[in-house]
Amino acid sequence: MYLAEQNYYSHKSVEGIDFRDNYLDADGNVVDNVRRDLEGQYSTHLFTNRSVELIQAHDQNEPLFLYLAYTSVHTPHQAPQEDVEKYAMNISANITDFLMRKKYSTMISIMDEGVGKVVDALKLKGMMENTVLVFTSDNGAGLSGSNYPLRGGKRSFFEGGVRAASFVYSPRLEKSGYINKNLHHVTDWYATFQKLAGDKPNLHQKPQLEIDGVDIWSSLSKGEPCRDEVLYELRDPSKRLDSTGKDARDVARAYPVSLNTSSTTIQLPYDEMRPLKALNYAQDFFAIRWKNWKLITGTGITLHGWTSSTGQTDEYEQFTDESGNLHDWTIVSGTFLFDLTVDIREKNNLADDYPDVVKKLLNKRQSYVEKVKFISERKYDKHGISLVDGVWKPWV
Fold first, then answer.
1. How far is 243 from 252, CA to CA, in rounded Å?
2. Of 93 and 102, which is predicted with more confidence?
3. Hey, which of 54, 150, 309, 330 would disulfide with 159, CB 3.0 to 4.6 Å?
């Protein structure tokens, strides 16, 4: 699928279908196999069943990489009614959004059941002893969830947005049954799997481009430290002509901020910034983690607050600061520095107290800028894809 979400039964996003089972032909070309025939079948079951089929048919003389990206539990919240009654019978009718939470818990249960079927298929095939199983997420909870005690959530660079839990199982792990708190990044999975599979990119006919990830297997298997730095975001006007249209670009660039050590923030016009998504295309933006320090600086910072530990309705459904005077998408320009060792809630901006640290982290920015490829302005459908004969397809 190319879009962010789809109906779990029609497999459509808006008016177009976005469900396919692609494969390579004899010449190695991708065949775009749109599956209109599966309409009406619950997509989580379809993803599970297809994964099990691939495992059952796999030639164990060859390596297998199976990427099972369930759309569950993303919106829309849909689940078979018979399963809702089975899985969600213990949810109290007194809680907020009772019906939605019944469906949500059912979606989780069906996904969990699907993962179990995949594991069972690996065991029956005799592959589990040489398998690394990773279950992970892409970001923290959005406005309908809680990331307590962390600050913020999805679409923010606060810890509630960028931290995600992962589970790793493998008989190949030298150390197991523990919580690994080392610093990892999603790009590290590629480098790690590549090394585990014995791939030698230097021997490929086409040289592999430089990658951002690092091999974290020793960290996972032995608990050894690995990386101490992660780049969260970098935007630089010298490297990018925004492809979002003139209006969004002009609004973002009307409120620039110099990247410096000052913690002074300027609140930007909410009504102008959010509808145009200008906050996603700021002129200057830099967010980085180095050891215990975290720096966020630039234009268009989404200033999220904290979710409540009690899960009360008025606090659970939206981000507010602890004084209750910020809405969920307050947008500012400025500089934030946090010491995550002592301030995991990111309450204390230390930019003015440690200007030397801010300067050190800002100095790291240029090395990243030099690696960024220039992106020219281009025109395409707002989704980056086009609707052709009722099917969503890439714009390229």
1. 13
2. 102
3. 150
Report how far apart, in Å, the C-alpha atoms of 151 and of each of 60, 67, 154, 175, 345 are: 45, 30, 10, 31, 5
Does residue 232 surpass a pLDDT of 60?
yes
Terminal C-alpha separation, the chain: 15
How far is residue 146's CA from residue 153's CA, in Å, rounded to a whole number? Answer: 8
| Bridge partners, 338 (sequence order) | 294
Q: Are 48 and 114 in contact (CB under 8 A)?
A: yes
Q: Judging by beta carbons within 10 Å of its beta carbon (0-12, 13-18, 19+), is residue 220 exposed, middle or buried? A: buried
The beta-strand segments (E) located in 304-390 are: 330-339, 385-388
Gyration radius of the chain's alpha carbons: 23
> What is the DSSP-derived secondary structure letter of residue 95?
S
Average pLDDT on 91-100 reads 74
- What six digits make up the tokens of 105? 């818990």
- Name which of 344, 349, 317 is nearest 332 in CA terms: 349
- Per-residue pLDDT band for 261 (boundaries 50, 70, 90) equals low
Q: pLDDT tens digit string along 326-356?
A: 445 566 778 899 999 999 999 899 999 999 9
Separation CA 35–CA 20 (nearest Å) = 5
Nearest to 254 by CA among 289, 233, 282, 228: 282
Kindly state the tokens that stand for 172: 């190949």
Number of neighbours of residue 88 by Cβ within 10 angstroms: 20
Mean pLDDT over 10-33 rounds to 91
Which of 167, 291, 178, 283 is CA-nearest to residue 226? Answer: 291
